Amino acid sequence: MKLEQSERLFVDELFSSSLTAGKAVGVQNYEIDKLTGDAGTRRYYRVTPEKNESYVVCLDNPIKEEGKTSAFLEVHETLSNRKVRVPKLYDVNLMKGYYLEEDLGDSTMLKLLSQATQEEELDYYKKAIDELIKIHSTEASEIKGKSFETLAFDFEKLLYEIEFTNKYFIGEFLGHDLWGTEKRQMDECFTEIVNELSNQKRVLTHRDYHSRNIMVKNDELIIIDFQDARMGVPQYDLTSLLEDAYFEIERKNKYTLKKYYWENYLEKTGFQKDFSEFERLYSLMTIQRVYKAIGSFSFIHSTRKDIRYLKYIGYCFEKLRVILNTLPEYTELRKALGRIYYEY
Q: Residue 53 — very low, low, confident or very high, per pLDDT cuts 50/70/90?
């Protein structure tokens, strides 16, 4: 991507300070290139020396308050202690929002899945679930005193995400005025779903655990974009992974993977009582999570005029329709969403 002169000078100044401090080594002449950003506000740059391995510079919001750390550093430390493979971190300047990180290359798990066989797909996802189990196994003592200890996907947060989608997808993207009986039926159904989900035992969740946030380097899966971690029902991350807005897992593999997670974590620890409870919570979490994803794609389009994510909305809506068809108690929600999306 095109790099503005001011950006180049700023990144060069920060990287030079890392060189001076010995945080980056074996570098003399180097090039700086801007990388395509994600759906967040962070900016990324690749620093490529003539020799030796390259680095990635991440620029985030500066932290001016003395003694205060960042959520990224807190979660990075927690996950590293759990032996979760996260990017190596070489240097940090919080006052300038600067992080010097390991260059993970350009191969996301999604990119490799696009060329994978059914067997290779299963293998990638099992490895991703192994990393997820490490995250979910985090003990309360390991996060005590950290900023995300008190953050949770509680009733208010989950319902806020529903209302977020109502605003940016139904209201702004579709231009539909949600009111009257239609609004009441949807509110009642979503409130029931959110209430059931928010009353479950919680684990540390990544919050955005999907195939675009897992890099593959030297056949190793490396987890990124974890700075918004908070406590939540285990199915929050699992549905993010297996009901990915970007990739449809082969049906047989999906069932195998759900059983794999259940048997290797929830059943083994007794965290949830039986597989039928697990399946129900998985279905409810899929509804909430996919609906929120639709809202996020609409929000990005509305606020940044970025059309890259619009192509996933139709796929997500079909996923919603299918899962709601398995839950007769939410027939009114399925019909209301169907009218709004398919008839207007």
A: confident
